[in-house]
């Protein structure tokens, strides 16, 4: 009977695929909301009287808080087994904060809402990834997480694009009209409400996504601690995050160096987001077909990103942003799929929470350090980035070897 697909297996697989697509719709709508808001909030705070330092500190601190809470929320979800409750609460807090920006009159209140939005995202992400991992065991984890990331990135593109259209239609120029910003945040309440309704529909239609987990994809069910392979993988991911340059720093360099005309810089970012979506799907399928071996190749591509972006001319910058987009797509799809293959299902939310907390902390620290190094000379930034990325590949190879040994035993 080997190789023969049973009708009940096909039915479960179709149900799992439907769950992933529905959650993809949730993420598409959610990303429309908060990525749209992120494209306006800096300018809006400026209109309200905030300084550049206040904007930078608020955004950076919000990101840190959003990653730091993930370890707590992951443990909470695994301990209580209330994955849906934690996820829905996170979506409600995150998406509810954004339309309220239309009502604030002081930049300090806007900062509080920015913190609420980031904390809401941090609260729901580990539970969301755990729920997705169950269904993705039936479709192929790479494909499942890749499809979800692709739909996520469609929303990340649509939100800012539609708000740009709003500004064009209203004829807003320069610092912009405060009324137009408020209208933009209010309009983002529409996809926010739809996203919450979609996640409630998913909860109603799929009350127990863990039932979709394929038994052959539930590793080490008796294990009470994380495996050494997970530890090495976590170290590799942290090094990778520390060496990735944030796009604001890339944009700052491109503007100062004149490597590209300023109007093309946002278009370059949009192109990277399109590459992100395509790479998430492609790399996900490759992971399902050839397994862990695809990861060292993707990690190695990242080594070349900083030299191309910070030391090259226009053609090199375009190539570097393409690699940057591939890296983002890999991080948001296959990196999550691997965790599901390394960790038992009853500790998966904790594993995702720990992963995101370490990853975010390393990204924050690496970004801050690269900013300081760039002020000295772009070459210093490049040397740092390449060094930690090479170390990341080495740690990943160790994780692969340890995983193969654990799997063999």
Automatic annotation (TrEMBL):
Domain (Major facilitator superfamily (MFS) profile): residue spans on this chain: 17-403
Keyword Iron-sulfur: no
Membrane topology per record: Multi-pass membrane protein
Chief site of localization: membrane
Pfam families per the UniProt record, alphabetical: ATG22 (PF11700), MFS_1 (PF07690)
InterPro entries with a match to the protein in the record: Atg22-like, MFS, MFS_dom, MFS_trans_sf, Uncharacterized_MFS-type
Location within or outside the cell: Cell membrane
Membrane-traversing stretches: 16-34, 46-71, 83-104, 154-171, 183-206, 230-252, 264-287, 307-328, 349-373, 379-400
Highest rank taxon of the organism: Bacteria
Protein name as annotated: Probable transmembrane protein
Organism: Winmispira thermophila (strain ATCC 49972 / DSM 6192 / RI 19.B1)
């Amino acid at each position: 009977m080997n190789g023969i697909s049973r009708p009940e297996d096909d039915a479960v697989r179709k149900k799992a695929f439907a769950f992933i697509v529905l959650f993809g719709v949730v993420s598409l709508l959610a990303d429309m909301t908060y990525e749209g808001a992120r494209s306006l909030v800096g300018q809006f705070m400026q209109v309200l009287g905030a300084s550049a330092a206040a904007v930078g500190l608020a955004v950076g601190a919000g990101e840190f808080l959003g990653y730091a809470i993930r370890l707590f929320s992951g443990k909470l979800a695994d301990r209580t087994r209330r994955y849906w409750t934690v996820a829905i609460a996170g979506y409600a807090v995150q998406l509810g904060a954004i339309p309220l920006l239309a009502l604030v009159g002081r930049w300090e209140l806007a900062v509080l809402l920015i913190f609420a939005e980031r904390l809401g995202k941090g609260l729901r992400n580990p539970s969301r990834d755990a729920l997705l991992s169950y269904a993705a065991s039936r479709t192929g984890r790479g494909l499942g997480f890749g499809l979800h990331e692709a739909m996520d990135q469609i929303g990340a593109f649509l939100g800012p694009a539609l708000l740009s259209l709003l500004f064009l239609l209203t004829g807003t120029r320069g610092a912009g009209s405060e009324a137009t910003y408020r209208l933009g945040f209010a309009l983002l309440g529409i996809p926010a409400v739809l996203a919450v309704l979609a996640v409630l529909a998913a909860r109603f239609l799929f009350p127990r996504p863990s039932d979709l987990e394929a038994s052959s994809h539930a590793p080490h069910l008796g294990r009470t601690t994380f495996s050494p392979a997970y530890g090495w993988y976590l170290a590799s991911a942290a090094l990778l995050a520390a060496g990735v340059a944030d796009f604001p720093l890339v944009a700052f360099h491109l503007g100062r160096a004149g490597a590209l005309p300023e109007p093309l810089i946002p278009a370059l970012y949009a192109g990277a987001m399109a590459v992100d979506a395509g790479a998430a799907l492609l790399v996900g399928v490759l992971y399902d077909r050839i397994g862990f071996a695809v990861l060292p190749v993707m990690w190695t591509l990242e080594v070349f990103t900083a030299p191309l972006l910070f030391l090259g001319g226009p053609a090199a910058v375009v190539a570097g942003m393409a690699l940057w987009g591939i890296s983002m797509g890999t991080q948001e799809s296959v990196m999550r799929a691997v965790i599901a293959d390394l960790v038992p299902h009853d500790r998966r939310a904790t594993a995702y929470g720990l992963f995101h907390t370490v990853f975010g902390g390393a990204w924050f620290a690496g970004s801050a350090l690269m900013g300081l190094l760039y002020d000295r000379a772009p070459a210093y930034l490049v040397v740092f980035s390449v060094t930690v990325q090479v170390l990341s590949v080495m740690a990943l190879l160790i994780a692969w070897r340890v995983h193969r040994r654990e799997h063999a035993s």
